Fold:
Amino acid sequence: QVTELVLDNCRSSNGEIEGLNDSFKELQFLSMANVELTSLAKLPTLSKLRKLELSDNVISGGLEVLAERCPNLTYLNLSGNKIKDLGTVEALQNLKNLKSLDLFNCEITNLEDYRDSIFELLQQITYLDGFDQEDNEAPDSEDDDDEGDEDDDDDENEAGPPGEYEEEDDEDDGASDLGEGEEEEEVGLSYLMKEEIQDEEDDDDYVEGGDEEEEEGVRGEKRKREPEDEGEEEED
Structure:
């Protein structure tokens, strides 16, 4: 069920990678960069493969194998290999679905009229070394995603000013709310403190008043007792 497989920097043995075989029937993307491949003779049949990365190897020919084993290739990267002449590349004519070919850092790029010759030889391709015949850069799938994100960002930016104002308003509201909250808190604290002070004063007054009443009661009893005491003394 594997659809993508990256084997970069693995070491090939006698032109093959151990474990890579015809069982990868669903494989659509395969990368074998810098694995010291000298040929493609032992490449397994991968009928659904669409992208093949073979950069930085030592491949010098035998490209006709690709049309037999990977007939649905749309992208082929052979940059940094030992490909020197147009005759080697001619074998790619049978890759009818091939749209993008990369031969960057191969000796063939030093040929006079290299680009025009390749486009004439492989008329099915649209991009060579990342550019079409009019030197327009090839779109990348990741760049497409980024562009989509940028479009979304642009849409957001178009509606940005109101949003910014709203955010600023929200911040102002938050600040004003906070200010009111602080004022309320200050008022609440001072109010509570005043209430506590008043309660304490009321308590003191109540206590003092109670003491005075008690003292007056004691004095009244003394006054009552004194005449009684005097009466008893007179009787005696």
User: Anything to note?
Assistant: Residues 11 and 17 are 7 Å apart (CA to CA).
